[in-house]
TrEMBL record:
This is Chorismate synthase. Homotetramer. It catalyses: 5-O-(1-carboxyvinyl)-3-phosphoshikimate = chorismate + phosphate. The gene is aroC. Pfam families: Chorismate_synt. One of its GO terms (molecular function) is chorismate synthase activity. It comes from Alkalibacillus flavidus. FMN binds at residues 130-132, 250-251, 295, 310-314, 336. This reaction introduces a second double bond into the aromatic ring system.
Length: 388
């Protein structure tokens, strides 16, 4: 199962093409739109999110509410394109007009300069339009299809905010359904209501200062059986695939599973998860310090993965840079800005993690159509329960 996205931030539309989804999966546009609207919300978002509502059209691969097994095309139209057609249109323009509109001032923290150097673009808009985090809407669309597959198999995914700047949510013993409910009721998508106002306060302070702040997102996946992924090759380890997907999200700079970096200063006896057995449920772990993974494979415990998002680099208190044409120093321009996008990023991370888990399942089990996948998946669970 794979997908590609296409489109620019201020272009006509974003497009997601998904291949390998089993046939007969129930899928409606509302399933995708619900996720897209969640991504647009969250305390600290800028003006761009108020311009339009992200709603997709299903252009292929679905008939009468069910997938066909053929490629699925999801189109996300940019309603604001009418204001950008002269700038982003595909037709040639007068050379003098093009020169006047060129973006020649790279912004620190963005792909502007690196991308311009790599592709020899002397108008940096050719870089910034595609490298924009706007593209994550197309990835959320793909992830929403993955979440639909997982839900049919009894697997639930929840994304929520663990930390914004120096305000950290408490460790709370909650079911995954409770985590989903709390995050959905929170403006900052946290599961700790006692820290919500403090998170809002640091966002407001950053905005007032013309600055930005980052934070930590956590995703939990509940209901996964042991043995997803593989130890036999580096690129088949599921935790590796998830880690790569998380750091591929715009502005994400780190990832950890379970206790993660804390393992550097704990002993083995406080790090590993002891094994138990019950006649009804089979093997289980007494703790989940390793976040549901050993040897690149799931242990049957919930997958728990954290990602750290840096502060957004587009600031109302701009940083210094250098014009690529004149080589003169300047203060970086503002394309648009959120003071904090961590709440929205929790939705993005939730969906990219869901995609990797669903893709691993489709890769591991017969999956031409959903009943075939469900039967193989249930048989696998039963075999594991009586293993040995």
């Amino acid at each position: 199962m794979r997908y590609l996205t296409a489109g620019e931030s201020h272009g006509k539309q974003l497009t997601t093409i998904i291949e390998g989804v089993p046939a007969h999966l129930p899928l409606l546009s509302e399933d995708v739109n619900a996720s897209l609207l969640r991504r647009q919300g969250g305390y600290g978002r800028g003006r761009r999110m108020k311009i339009e509502k992200d709603l997709i059209s299903i252009l292929s691969g679905v008939r009468h509410g069910y997938t066909l097994g053929s490629p699925i095309t999801l189109a996300l139209t940019n309603d604001d394109f009418k204001h950008w057609e002269d700038i982003m249109g595909e037709e040639p323009v007068d050379p003098d007009t093009h020169i006047r509109r060129q973006v020649t001032k790279p912004r620190p923290g963005h792909a502007d300069l690196n991308g311009g150097m790599k592709y020899n673009h002397h108008d940096l808009r050719n870089v910034l339009e595609r490298s924009s985090a706007r593209e994550t809407a197309a990835r959320v669309a793909a992830g929403s299809v993955a979440k639909k597959i997982l839900s049919e198999l009894g697997i639930t995914v929840a994304g929520y905010v663990r930390q914004i700047y120096d305000v950290e949510a408490r460790e709370l013993d909650l079911t995954i359904d409770e985590k989903i409910a709390r995050a959905s009721q929170s403006d900052v998508k946290t599961i700790d209501p006692e820290q919500e106002e403090a998170m809002k306060r640091v966002i407001d302070e950053a905005k007032q200062d013309g600055d930005s702040i980052g934070g930590v997102v956590e995703v939990t996946v509940d209901g996964v059986p042991p043995g997803l992924g593989s130890y036999v090759q580096y690129d088949r380890k599921l935790d590796s695939q998830i880690a790569g997907a998380v750091v591929s999200i715009n502005a994400f700079k780190g990832v950890e599973f379970g206790i993660g970096f804390e393992a550097a200063h704990t002993r083995g006896s406080q790090t590993h998860d002891e094994i138990g057995y019950e006649d009804d449920g089979g093997y289980y772990r007494k703790t989940n310090r390793l976040g549901g993974f050993e040897g690149g494979m799931t242990t049957g415990m919930p997958i728990v993965v954290k990602g750290v998002m840096k502060p957004i680099p587009t600031l109302y208190k701009p940083l210094e840079s250098v014009d690529i044409h004149s080589k003169e120093p300047f203060q970086a321009s503002i394309e648009r800005s959120d003071s904090c996008a961590v709440p929205a990023a929790s939705v993005v991370m939730e969906h990219v993690v869901a995609w990797e888990v669903a893709a691993a399942i489709v890769d591991q089990f017969p999956s031409d159509y959903m009943d075939q996948l469900k039967t193989a998946f249930d048989d696998y669970r039963e075999r594991l329960r009586t293993f040995g």
